[in-house]
Every structure is written in C-alpha cells, then in structure tokens.
Amino acid sequence: MAESKTFFTVRSIILMVFVVIIAPFLPMLISRQWRWWEAWAYAILSILGFVVSRMLVARRNADLLIERSRSIELQGAKSWDKILAPTLALGSLFILVVAGLDKVFGWTTPFSFNAKVLSLIVIVLGYVLGSWALIENRFFSGVVRIQTDRGQKVVSTGPYRFVRHPGYAGALWTFLFMPILLDSLWAFIPTLLLIGILILRTSLEDRTLQAELPGYADYAKKTRYRLLPGIW
Predict the structure, then answer these.
(1) pLDDT confidence of 3, banded at 50, 70, 90?
(2) pTM score, two decimals?
(3) Cα–Cα distance between 224 and 232 in angstroms, integer?
(4) Is the pLDDT of residue 185 over 80?
(5) Is-contact 85 76, C-beta < 8 A?
(6) How far is CA 165 from the centre of its chain?
(7) Residue 79, Cβ neighbours under 10 Å: how many?
(8) How would you write 170-199 as a 3-class SS string?
(9) Domains, the chain, ranges and CATH?
(10) Phi, psi at residue 144, to the nearest 5°?
(11) Which of these ranges, 4-18, 128-142, 189-203, has the smallest mean pLDDT?
C-alpha cells in the first residue's frame, strides 16, 4: 500500500481530476450551452468509460493502475515519448475547446441527427475497444518503456489478435467522430493533427517493441497490422 501511495503525487491527482472530470465538460463550459445534449452525451460517456475501465482493471490487474499512475510523471519513458505521450493524452482537449468555440460563434451548420447517432455509436465502440485492450494487457503503460521491472511479455490475446495496438485504434475512431457529435467542422483541424501524432507514436512504439521486447518481432509477423486491419 505504501508503494502505491508514492506514485499518486499531488500533481498527478490534480491532472487526473482535470482530465477525467472537468475536461469532458469543456464544450459546455466554453459555450455556456447546458442544454447541449450531444456535449452531455460525450461528457457522460467519457467519464463512465474511464471509471468502468479502471474498475475492471483493478479487479484483474491492480498493479497496472500503479504503473499508469507512475507514467503520469513520465517515469522511464523514452525520450521522444516524453513529448508525444502528454501531447496525445491532452490533445483531445483542443478538439473540445474548438467545438465549444464553434458553438459560441456558429461556424458550423449542425450535422444531421442520424450522423450524430452514428458518431455516438462509433465513439462508444472506440471506448470499448480501448478499454478491452487496457483490461487484456497488464503492461498497458501510459508511456513507452520496456517494463523489465514488471516482467513484460508479448500480449497476443483479446483485441491483440487483430491489431498490434488496439488501444490506439480505439482512440483513433473516437477522435475522428468527436467533431461530428459536437457539430464542429473546425474541430477536424486539431483532430487530424492529433491522429498524425497518434500514428507517429504508434510507429515509434512498434519499432521499440520489435527491437527490445523478446518475441514481439515474431508476433508482428503473425499480426501484420498496427491499427487498421488490411491497411496499416
């Protein structure tokens, strides 16, 4: 117990509270539109997705929560990931901010109800895929590092049978459909930049794993695609 407490610093707790509880409400905080059902749907889904997935992880791989709390401080991260990890973790905030501003100034004509329902379904599936990867992989750290201290090994079960980085795949689909749910064409600008960062990090992480994690190169030959089956 004492060991786990050392990883939950004041900084990490404040950051977690902001990202998990406050950030999902940014579109409404910026626009002051509290009857915006799409923004409420996103906020509730985001918070529930985090809470439920961590509860399931705690039951199956409690030590992963300690690892991820430590990774908030970027401990042991590759030098390049000390930039990419926080950028990717906080990048969705820019989508939410732009969507909130779009609501204030009316830059975008609202999407159809059917498009929003479809986007909400895809976002839910993205969260499910990301959560499944998190629960299945007890080495799902928040930073790229080879976890020799935790006996890291290749995980090829669950969603890892289909793509090598299912957590990133889930995030990609979530990012891509957030602007539609929140009625903001302009939000596609930070979205596309964020997806570019996600693809770059996926590529660098995959190279690291193939070079440094025993057995990963063989796994990569069997599971050919990183994010999208049949594409990449």
Answers:
(1) very low
(2) 0.89
(3) 8
(4) yes
(5) no
(6) 11
(7) 6
(8) HHHHHHHHHHHHCCCCCCHHHHHHHHHHHH
(9) 2-222 (1.20.120.1630)
(10) -85, 110
(11) 4-18
H helices of the chain, where? 2-7, 10-17, 26-31, 37-60, 62-71, 81-105, 113-136, 166-181, 188-212, 216-222
3-state secondary structure of 83: helix
CA pair distance 36, 108, nearest whole angstrom: 15
Q: How far apart are the first and last CA of the chain?
A: 42
Residue carrying structure tokens 């990301």: 130
- Whether residue 65 contacts residue 58, with contact meaning beta carbons closer than 8 Å, is answered with yes
Sequence-distant (6+) residues with CB within 8 A of 104 are 30, 31
